[in-house]
Amino acid sequence: MAQKHQTPLLDELEKGPFPSFVKEMKRAAEHSEYAQDLLGQLELSYKEKVTHWKHGGIVGVRGYGAGVIGRYSDVPDKFPGVAHFHTVRVNQPAGFFYTTSALREICDIWDKYGSGLTNMHGSTGDIILLGTKTDNLEPIFAELSSRGWDLGGSGSAVRTPSCCVGPGRCEWACYDTLELTYQITQKYQDELHRPMFPYKFKFKMAGCAVDCIAAIARADMSIIGTWKDNIQIDQDEVRNYAQSGMDIQKEIVDMCPTGCMSWDGNELKINDEDCNRCMHCIAKMTKALRPGKERGATILLGSKAPIVTGALMSWVIVPFMKMEPPYEELFDLVDRIWEFWDEHGKNRERIGELIERLGFPTFLKEVGLDPHPAMVKEPRRDPFFFWSEEDIEK
Amino acid sequence: MDREELKKVIYELVEKSMGKKKLKQSDILKKVSADHGVDKSEVKAALRELLDSGQLIFTYFGGSYVEIPPKE
């Protein structure tokens, strides 16, 4: 298929040493009318410095209120191939583990019904299939469903839960992030497909404080692996690191954020009471140090990107929870949090914003959590709960 | 209140609010439950039947709402 539109501005983006999305779109345009007109419309947007997309509206598959994001061109006469250019979100497998045949299956379906362009993965974690027509939505959904795939979350719904690779590939995982992600996905199917909240709600599961899934910055509920007891130390391996040239004082002890370590040239000592489980030393000395044996997760709440109001980071609401099937304690907590949000949340107000508006003491009281010194809003800041008049009298 | 009657109440609520206020699912559950003394889970089940049958649809305009589908 010959190039339909001249794209001098986009062509500039092919010239650098970096991978180019323009190059990929041009490859797709060799056999896709969607991609042809997408290049044309994008060139126009670059030229006029204004978007030509209209977003939202009434598109979806019957019975679901999530999983399809409506997108229309406001210049359909010029670019009929992208008059409709809806995005389909497909629920990714936990930990992003695929077989090659599964990837081929997705791509074949998308070549048949859509633009062939994908985003692996969107920031929520879903497989993002970019660009199709309204008439193709039901057939795509039918074909995906018949092969065991499902749509992901969008709008004011639970967003597709996502997690790090967990115990699938990582020895530091303090709980089975893959299993929990699967169980949350199954448990909250209704909340995922049928938007019922004031706004979106994201779960992200990280196996340890390294937080490869960036849960603390992105998820309304961040479930981050941790341990209760002492870091496991192999002193022989510590000495091996020192003999191999590692400056343990400078690279490990002096970098400890709580200053809970010491090194006398022969033995590494850790005062575990002062350790905040940041994972720095473990990540640097992988052979010598390991997380403790009594493992679980810290539950944090409230992070979000700056969409309606400013960005927030998650903060601790439960310092330690055992994270084992059937996860009843966690699900019970989630239900209480949603009840609080449903009762008080304004339209398009995330849970973190609601807590900021009503105050943390109100949240703790209504959700039935006891205040704890570990409930810090930011590292090395005072806990932000307050004493009521009644408490002072006691 | 039986299921069909409940569905009628929900549909009429959505119909009446059209052009005035977009309703979220939680608005419908709260309003119908309070006005008719029906448990929210029953309202939710009735609403789901209306959505599954296509009599009501979800729309997205910054947030997600429940509306009557436009006439073809």
Protein architecture, described:
The complex is a heterodimer of chains A (394) and B (72). Chain A has helices spanning 8-12, 21-29, 33-48, 100-113, 137-146, 177-187, 189-193, 215-218, 235-243, 248-253, 280-284, 328-344, 351-358, 360-367, 389-393, and strands spanning 53-55, 68-69, 71-73, 87-90, 114-120, 127-132, 162-163, 203-206, 221-227, 232-233, 261-263, 268-270, 289-290, 295-301, 315-321. The radius of gyration of chain A is 25 Å and the shape is globular. Helices cover 34% and strands 16% of the residues of chain A. In chain A, helix 2 packs across helix 3 (33-48) and helix 4 (100-113) packs antiparallel against helix 5 (137-146). Chain A has three domains: 8-146, Alpha-Beta Plaits; 162-228 and 295-393, Sulfite Reductase Hemoprotein, domain 1, CATH 3.30.413.10; 232-290, 2-Layer Sandwich (Alpha-Beta Plaits). In chain A, the strands form five sheets. A five-stranded mixed β-sheet of chain A has the order 7-8-9-14-15. A four-stranded antiparallel β-sheet of chain A has the order 2-4-6-5. A two-stranded antiparallel ribbon of chain A has the order 1-3. The longest helix of chain A has 17 residues, at 328-344. The mean pLDDT of chain A is 93. Chain B has 72 residues and is mostly helical. In chain B, strands 1-2 form a two-stranded antiparallel sheet. In chain B, a hairpin with a 3-residue loop joins strand 1 and strand 2. In chain B, helix 1 (3-17) crosses helix 3 (40-52) and helix 2 (25-36) packs across helix 3 (40-52). Chain B is globular, with a radius of gyration of 11 Å. The chains are: A alpha+beta (394), B mainly alpha (72).
